[in-house]
Design brief:
- With 171 residues, the chain is mostly helical.
- The chain has seven helices and no strands.
């Protein structure tokens, strides 16, 4: 049985769910993902244990993964060699939202999810781990690699160029 408090908590989570859905699925499919998440949550509200927010994000994550696994869905993989450099900007100029959005879209799904939940939704690592059903160490690893990759993309550097000299094999 649902209560007014359940309804209030669910409504309070909607802005975060919308942001996360938009970043995961794009503007075209975000509203559908939020609607599917809320519908499933409402039906299973009596099965919830723990906090509402991470539970809702877990539902959304699982729905999104299920959608990606559907046969016939054409996923376009980005080839690291085909990445375009970031647009030129003057020193000190802030990064445009569109540029950041494009860079986030180029990240592998696991890294993108962790970055969005930690940075955008400000979830603690433990909640992110519970939401995505992965260990906390994996959250930290994906976050670190995702941040490094974002820096590369925003600086217009090719993948794997961390500013360190490359090693040469000597025989």
């Amino acid at each position: 049985m649902t209560t007014q408090e359940d309804s209030r908590q669910l409504q309070a989570c909607l802005p975060g769910l919308r942001r996360y859905a938009r970043a995961l699925a794009g503007a075209l499919h975000a509203d559908d993902l939020v609607q599917d998440t809320v519908e499933r949550a409402w039906r299973k509200l009596d099965q919830r244990s723990g906090e509402m927010r991470p539970w809702l994000f877990s539902i959304m994550h699982n729905l999104h993964v299920d959608q990606l696994r559907r046969p016939g869905l054409a996923l376009q993989e980005l080839d690291d060699d085909a990445l375009l450099p970031a647009p030129e900007r003057a020193p000190g100029q802030s990064i445009a939202i569109g540029e950041m959005d494009a860079a986030l879209a180029r990240l592998p799904l696991g890294q993108r999810e962790v970055i969005l939940l930690v940075a955008l939704e400000q979830m603690p690592y433990e909640q992110v781990a519970a939401t995505l059903a992965i260990p906390v160490g994996t959250v930290m690893s994906r976050l670190s690699r995702g941040r490094d990759r974002l820096r590369e993309l925003l600086d217009g550097r090719p993948a794997g160029s961390h500013g360190a000299p490359t090693l040469k094999v000597v025989k």
